[in-house]
Amino acid sequence: MGGFLTEIRYAARALRKSPGLSGIAVLALALGIGLTTIMFSIVHGAILKGLPFEDAHRLMHLERNNLAEDIESMEVTIHDYLEWREQQQSFESLAAFYDGTINLSGTERAERYEGAFMTANAFVSLGVQPVLGRGFREDEDEPGAPPVLILGYHVWQDRFSADEDVVGSTVQVNGEQTTIIGVMPEGFRFPFLQDIWVPLRMDPLEIERGTGTTLEVYGRLRDGVSRDQATAEMQSIAQRLATAYPETNEGVGVNVKPYAEEYVGEEPRGLLFTMLGAVSLVLLIACANVANLLLARASTRSRELAIRSAIGASRLRVVLQLLGDGLVLSTAGAVLGIGIAWFGIRAFNDAIASAEPPFWIDIGLQPTVLLFVLGITVLAGVLSGILPAIQASGARVNEVLKDESWGSSGFRVGKLSRGLVVAEIALSVGLLVGAGLMIKSVANLNNIEYGFDTEEIFTARMGLFESEYPDRESRQIFFNEALRRLDGLAGVETATLATSLPGVWSGGTWFAVEGQSYDRDQDYPGANWVAITPDYFSTFSVDVVRGRAFTTADGADGMQVAIVNESFADRYFEGEDALGRRIRQGRSDSVEPWLTIVGIVPDMYLEGVEDQEDDPEGMYVPLAQADVSFLYMALRAGGSPMTLANPARDAVASVDRDVPLYWVQSLQSAIDETTWYFRVFGTLFMIFGIVALFLASVGLYGVMSAAVSNRTMEMGIRMALGAKARDVRRLVLRQGMIQIAIGVILGVALAGLLARGLEILLYRVEAWDPMTFISISLVLTAVGLLASYIPALRATRVEPIAALRYE
Amino acid sequence: MSEANGVNGNGTAYGMPLIQMEDVRKVFLTEEVETHALQNIYLTIQEGEFVSVAGPSGCGKSTLLSLLGLLDSPTGGAYQLDGTPVETLSASQRATIRNRHIGFIFQAFNLIGDLTVYENVELPLTYRGLPAAERKEKVQRALERVGMSHRTGHYPSQLSGGQQQRVAVARAVVGDPLILLADEPTGNLDSSNGQAVMELMGELHAEGATICMVTHDPRYAHFADRQIHIFDGQVVDSEDLSDEVARDLRESGYEAGVGREE
After folding, report:
1. A444 to chain B, closest Cα gap in Å
2. What is residue B241's predicted lDDT score, i.e. its pLDDT?
3. Which of A299, A396, A406 to mutate to test the interface with B (most CBs of B within 10 A)?
4. Using CA of residue A680, residue A682, residue A683, residue A684, what is the dihedral sign?
5. pTM value?
6. For a pLDDT cut of 90, what percent of chain B falls above it?
7. Is the link from the previous residue into A19 a cis peptide, with omega within 30 of 0?
8. Given its phi and psi angles, is residue A591 left (phi above 0), alpha (psi -120 to 50 degrees) or beta?
């Protein structure tokens, strides 16, 4: 050990003497270690760390499936949940919840929070206790129980100024007087990113079997029970239910999986691990670079090493000395790399903040991450140092000491160096193709032709509760009045209310075309469905293609009408005029009225821009002819849309002070939110690619330079024999080109593998996009040739006489 | 100045001067210090002549050889190779002349380690742009001439020093140069290999090759028809060994030398 420390000291001293080489090596390793650390901290935060509960790995998420009908996952009905809870033995208990926004009013301005409706045993299953007050009592989730509420820590801090007397006080929750019974600990936002919890008070007797709001179910495995055993038990329960209730439960099975996997599913997990693999390639490139630099250095140091061997240093000692070089460099690289990672992680967290990841996803330089850094630092040091160490320690001492090995100019480390460069190029091509696909993907996102205005549109959502707005009429009155006041706001050009926003998402409906017959329910077509007020299209600056927009005359009592988009008209009325034709929502058992199509409008990305499955057919109905409780508003502002935020809140509050606005943002940011991961991971991957390109070109240049200077003698011989400048240039370039060609071919194969893993990050780009593959191969070839050309030019300036060291 | 005409190893009369240097000098400038490596060099080498250049280490004999071989340019003076002034040629023109008219044999052999014996010998012909068939024929002939035709696929590292030098000789003669320039060709060889290489040089000379060889080994210097002594960058004398007596002397000295060594 002492000997090794001595070698480390020698190595540090020697490396200080060549600051240029050491600087490049440290920078390369810092980039490699830094980027790998960023990616690992993401994987660790999102996947490995799991939920911050005791034995969190035993916490399972349960859902239903119906594989016979190709349904891989379904939430659970209240009836199934209760049967499961009753019959199962594998879990300590089974809890259930559904999430939704919760309107808090009655103390000051109304505000809407992300909330969860939980069974009373919900927190018991998690093993988490409130910091103030108590959790739910067993009877509090029964229908008719007095309403209670548990606050999240920061709601308690912000809205109730951390008042400890808050427990026992009452507030309005979704229009119902509710008692606050507790405050959860800081950072607890189970099940996802919740702020408020109320008991789930569903009455199974009031709900027909197979219907009603569906639930998410979770439970903690009992000691000694495995996931497979639990799955087997749940399957047998499901089979019993299928026998007992074939109408609702036939073919229904159960999935049991670790809780966190429900929120970071298989695809994102695959993606994150692919990205971790990809960034490891950057680190490998960095190691190859450093190994090459050390190889070049070792070959110039071969005499020193031979002297050491001659005076008795063992081969191990020589190996340790050279490994010491690698470790000193990687340690310096790690220090700088942690700095890079710190900045990178901060930028990543900022970038994903708007996406609101689940509460347990905590990405940072935690102890496990630092341990990982330590691991990769040692690994990088060994990887960088081992080849030069073995190479140099194996040199024949006597020959080296005699100085020349018989006058033939073979540069023994050449093949190894060249191999490393081929590997670097291959890895870079792989990463760069990935980066190229990402660039194309992000460019596609940035160049979407929406066909409607996104920039100057203010949007927000509001909802009405049955307790206060019990019927359709009262809701219509509220919405009409709210719209009138919003429309009258200074700075609002036009205003509309709609059930969904274009470019973000919309609901869907089954429907029938009049005159068509459908044998089975499955044969009915589906389309996007939006209820809108008359100024919807003018608010988004969209012109009706044919027919007309809705007017105030399209009221509840007027002719029942619909507007369809062009895709809808083309698909369902091909070669015919859709105007005047009739459609009806629902399937065979529908009691909905027939709607006459009065207008055709352009497609407006109703399915959201994020959705890559082309399914753009959509229909619009007048809000006055629909019955909804939750609506978006979209206000066209003359200038910056967000200046309308407070006036809009006030306008709605002036109609009802207990109706808050939420999801307040511009339409563009609402759209961007749905595509954040394309941008964030795309950008991350682009950085990987660019760093890889930088490292590979530095590596290629370094190796070609070293090869040229190590082959100065050979150049001299060739020139003595009559080689001209162009012959020498060609020789060097040819060697570079062979490496580039092999590297590019291997890299394209690697890129093919990588691209498949990245598929879910690609926006309207094929994973095998030939343009990207070709252009990246060309770019890398060009960069590689440039990196070889400079040393090639230098080689031609070799004076043969100097090269031959004549005198 | 020294000039000599005579007969070659076959006893035939020398032809036109192949090399003519007049008042050639070479000055090296390093850190504002002028080093006069060569000065006042007058040298004529006739076609078919075997000249050896001797002198102590650092006297300038290798510099002279590099000027002769157009590996370097003189600082001043005139140099005609085969009647053509060559002292002011461009690098590319010099490369062409080296390739076509000069064959080099180095002390350290200077074979290219990554090339086979065949490829090493072929190299000058490749730069000359000869077609492959012609190259093959010449390479075979050159390798046969030095007795290395059975080792064409070997790499230099697989050969002994003597074998490597024979390959180097084959490479030097493969393009039928006007002159062979040899810089201490036996310097890295043991005496028996050195003898073999010198015999090979002798044979080449006997076949008509013009050779200029730098050596400080008196045994091998006497192989030449004429010996030039250089001291401190200047030619101090030129000794004609081309007559019968001298040749006898040379041969007996050579034999004696070998006998003493062993």
Report:
1. 50
2. 56
3. A406
4. positive
5. 0.73
6. 30
7. no
8. alpha
